[in-house]
Amino acid sequence: MFKKRATKPVVMGVIGVYKSIQAASKQVDLYLTRQEPGMTANIVFGEKGYTATAVKWQ
Length: 58
Fold this sequence. Notes:
Blueprint: E1 9-18, H1 21-33, E2 39-46, E3 49-57
Antiparallel strand pairs: 1-3, 2-3
């Protein structure tokens, strides 16, 4: 039988830090339209605002 291989996220880089969730979401949308299909993004709230990071699953 075939072995199932677990995929792991690899952080590709920080897209940016934004003051509002709307600004972070807009930049993530623009970033992902120019990237390859396997790329995803995370938006996390922190001390300095909303941090958007690009993640690729391998």
